[in-house]
Amino acid sequence: MAMYHGRSTLGAPMSELSTIQFTKILDLSDLPPGSKIEMLSFDWNGEPLLTISEGKPPAPPRNVDAVTLCDWLNTPPTGRHLVSWEGEQKRILTFPDQPTAMSPFLQRFEDGWIDVMPRGGAACLRDSNGQQRGDIFNLGDAIEDVQTTPSGDIWVGYFDEGVYGGGIGQSGLVCFDAQGQAQFKYNAVAAERHLPPIDDLYAMNVVGESEIWICYYADFPIVRLERFDSFQAWPEVAAIRGLGVSEGSIFAARAYKKDELFRADLEKGMWRTSPITAVDLAGEPIAAPFTTLARRNVMGILTQTAAYVAKL
Asked: Are 263 and 231 spatial neighbours (Cβ–Cβ below 8 Å)?
């Protein structure tokens, strides 16, 4: 069942300003010199995953020539680590093989891990110690996000180069099974349900096995999927990143103002919005610029010097 609610459902902003208190989970100053937080994501329990590299030369100045810049981009770090949490327990996993220049997406998979390259789409299964196991399969080029579930589903969203690149990415959003076989392709189903296609996925939240939220270019609807056969969609809400969901409300960052957070509540078919200020445990605003990520009812903020998380 598809439901596309009205023409425009973004209501007038609420007047009150609220805050969300974030806990710092890692500070760059605590890492060895030459380390960098490459990526913040979340696993299927909403626990944070931090990818950290070390040993890559510092970035060249902005006015450097193209050859020097490309050489630096193609230089891999000397090591890559994954910091994961299970409740209060923190684990640091160092991958045993030579790191790639580009940081992969890392997600839990069965009792181990899966890493997926954003360009090319090579997916490598690993055991709990980071050792490669099984064959490498391909999930398509130009990947924007990867999220897995305990049952083995691999949800993959694509940015525009994948959507218009002629491969599996032209589906915009694909759910693969544990063997890497596509079992759901969003754009084909969206056309049947008279929903706008994905040109470029901006935000995805795989809340559970049967609840997925997305927002995408060019129409920027908020779409809630119940597995593969039920859709709810609200058009022209906002261009957003980091889509969190909690008790019927959504929490997100505006895509073109990444440090501007807001909350939206559905009232009589309209999303009523209110701005949010991100603060630390001392109540001080977290300084911009920062990037916002979310999964389930957890939001994360990645600044140039630290990573923070908050339960919504």
From this structure: no
Q: Regarding beta strands 143-148 and 137-138, do their DSSP bridges make them parallel or antiparallel, or are they unpaired?
A: unpaired
Q: Where are the alpha helices (DSSP H) in the chain?
A: 66-73, 160-163, 186-192
> Tens of pLDDT along 222-256?
999 998 888 888 877 789 999 999 998 999 999 99
pLDDT of residue 2: 44
The amino acid sitting at 142 is A
Beta bridge partners, 18, equal 276
Place of tokens 């908020």: 222
The set of residues, in sequence order, having a beta carbon less than 8 Å from that of 311 and lying 6+ positions away, is 46, 297, 298
Average pLDDT over residues 214-222: 94
- Find out whether 142 and 161 touch, Cβ atoms under 8 Å: yes
User: Considering only CA atoms, which of 257, 217, 212 is closest in space to residue 237?
Assistant: 217
Q: Is the pTM of this model over 0.85?
A: yes
Q: Burial letters for 290-311: b for 16+ Cβ neighbours within 10 Å, e otherwise?
A: bbbbbbbbbbbbbbeebbbbbe
Question: Does residue 8 have a pLDDT over 50?
Answer: no
DSSP assignment letter at 56: P
Residue type, 97: D
Tokens of 276: 């949010």
37-66 mean pLDDT = 93
For position 121, what pLDDT does the model report?
96
Instruction: Taking the CA atoms of 145, 147, 152 and 155 in sequence, report the sign of the dihedral they define.
Output: negative
- Count CB atoms within 10 A of the CB of residue 4: 16
Contact present, 197 and 191 (Cβ < 8 Å): yes
Are 153 and 167 within 8 A, CB to CB?
Answer: no
Residue 77 and residue 16: Cα distance in Å, rounded? Answer: 45
pLDDT tens digit sequence for 17-33:
589 999 999 998 888 88
CB 105 within 8 A of CB 39: yes
Answer left, alpha or beta for residue 121, where phi above 0 means left and psi between -120 and 50 means alpha.
left
